[in-house]
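Sequence of Multiple sugar transport system ATP-binding protein (Paraburkholderia terricola).
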Amino acid sequence: MTNLANMTAVAEAAGVANAPEVADAAGLTHPANVAVRNLTIRLGANTVIENLDLDVRAGEFVVLLGPSGCGKSTLLHSIAGLIDVTDGSIEIAGEDMTWADPKDRRIALVFQSYALYPTMSVERNLSFALRINGTPKAEIARRVARASEMLQLGPLLKRKPAQLSGGQRQRVAIGRAIVREADVFLFDEPLSNLDAKLRTELRRELKQLHQRLGATMIYVTHDQVEAMTLATRMAVMRGGVIQQFGTPAEVYARPDNLFVATFLGSPAMNLLKGTLESRDGAPHFRSAHLRLDVSAYPFKSAPADSLPCVLGVRAEDVRVRMGEAASERAKVSLVEPMGNHRVIWLDYHGAQIASIDQTKTPVAVGDTAAFSFDGAHVSLFDEADGTRL
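Predicted 3D structure, token representation.
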């Protein structure tokens, strides 16, 4: 077997050997919480994760989001038991699983690669883990029928993987996880090998699947759209550290630092450097060319006067008006049609400001546009350390 096949075999067995033969009314074991405490993982001389804490509630869909190399897959694989931890602990359903074998953790894992057995039919791929663990035939048939109905695999059960499309193969891989009736489902970038249309379709199916199962799911991706649409809560990671953990709406609207602010959003959050100062008793942001009243901004503590800071504003909060007089004006440097909206880029004294615009007002490169944004709908960050003020 290849290394991938070996990992697949481990994942096939995980969560099945000790699974109860009688499931609850929903056909599942009860979803479990996952608690990671002070987790440190070193691979050789490289520290991938250090002193990381993560709490996943039972029944949640938690997404681990971040750029390549941030440690998100390493964290997922440590929960699965495929990577030994250097320090810390991992609990599943209140039971210490730090050194438990993968098969004893009651988890199911879906890899980025479909990793299907090419000589087996879809039906036998789905039932393989149950067969090697001695599950009764009637129970195997019940679980396979249930998973194939959920994922619309019924007409494909007799086909081999080579006769399936990419989306169908990934549904089989997901179905192979469902039949295990595990306490925790782990997904390692399962949609990254698919084209944009298939990703959208399977993303919707995954969300609906979670709603039907009510299972605990932990999902790794670098795609912010997947994270925002799938997660009940998301953990944004960088350099083995969780930068922010919260609901997608919270993380998007109130990023904890500049990394989170610029990693989420398409286009990324607009940033302008300046100074926070008091004017007539009210806090204002001031740059070389812009002054903005931010008295409605929800500061974490009383703002310091003359503090170097960075102002961030989402593209959808920048209002562009053509042919109007205003104190803030800029040249249109680029227009990107996006179907139901367009992105208008403004050259503001050398800084590029993006605006998401849904009007049909004619606009062309080189035009002069007025723009504005509300001081209550911005983010302010300390320039020194990048943390939210």
